[in-house]
């Protein structure tokens, strides 16, 4: 009986793994450039961790179970609660700001579809201990830097930014009661899932129509001028003025950090997770109908809720699936073939032990070295070298006996020359420089 991976889960064959590694390398490079440190946590947590503040959406998508001791556990659907829990445990001893990233596997019991799986990886970046808009700007700039790093410009993806307090104050000015704001956010987060505005309006009006009519809310959301929204917010009291001032500074910082070209203001971004308290943002492909490539925001109450001291926090996560779909859709996915630095070929079976010794010496120099398990004609071995993506072939033959030399052939240019085997054994890099690890699409 042939078995397949369960629905929404993936097998990673070498070609898929090459893409994963290419993406993870870019995630790590950008994280380091922004001075974030890598951490990790457990694959499952106490169910309560998610019940506390992730919100209905995520809790209904949990893979949860009881262990033999009767504990209620859940496989992590996102990383933020784990990272906040870890921060809370050591909050007093960590110098601020704390900037951590993770690259980790998540599970959500969602209906599998394009860009949405049950098991996926997330690059998750969190900053703790800085309440001002500079931390928000750095997070958003890091997301923009990643997009640039993998070849996606502002014409391909944009980052839409809003602020929950700003949205709340504008909604309340329309009549939504403060205690109903969370429900209003849930509805707004699902706005684009409705087929038409009329469907959204019917749903909104059934529950929130007594507060504010959907038609007015839709008109409000269509207001794309950041300036107009900020001006309205400024006139909504002290808190409104503070939020507007922060958003203006955020815009200045984004400009200075070189990310402004990706960013635009969009009141429709409220985010589904319940823990957000301030700035919220999402990256969306401009062309497609895919879900968000990445999303995040400020969550200033979560660490305290998990037993730590009051700690401002902001972060975002990018999944591996949507970005892969988008790169494919735009035909920008890198073409990644297997690559070896060197393929050692024996031209004389009697010299195979020497060839094998050379393989070992080259590998000690951290070169990626292949050779054929079967003794075969030289032409066949050259074919194997090409099939494995080798940059150089080293042919060990009679020349070794006669003069201690081997032929080194550059498989890209076809150039061939004799090289002293003793030199190859000690410093082959001169002949086989490693490819640039940044080489991307
Ligand atoms: P999220 O919006 O739930 O936020 O997920 C972030 C990203 O993870 C999404 O934009 C999407 O690319 C990817 N993703 C989520 N679910 C799936 C899925 N079922 N299949 C494939 N990809 C998926 C969070 O997870 C927050 N913890 C982000 C955050 C970090 N907020 C603050 N810090």
Question: What does this molecule look like?
Answer:
The chain has 441 residues and is α+β, with helices and mostly antiparallel strands. 40% of the residues lie in helices and 20% in strands. Mean pLDDT is 92; it is low at 437-441. Histidyl-adenosine monophosphate binds next to strand 6, strand 10, strand 11 and helix 13.
Please mark out the parts with pLDDT under 50 across 5 or more consecutive residues, or reply none. 437-441
Bound ligands: histidyl-adenosine monophosphate
Tally of strands: 16
Total of DSSP H or I helical runs spanning 4+ residues: 17
- Biggest sheet layout: 8 strands, mixed
* First-residue to last-residue Cα separation: 39 Å
What do the pLDDT scores average to?
Answer: 92
What general outline do the C-alpha atoms trace? elongated
Fraction in beta strands: 15-25%
User: Biggest sheet: strands side by side, in what order?
Assistant: 1-5-6-11-10-9-7-8
C-alpha Rg, in Å?
A: 28 Å
Portion in helices: 40-55%
Structural class: alpha+beta
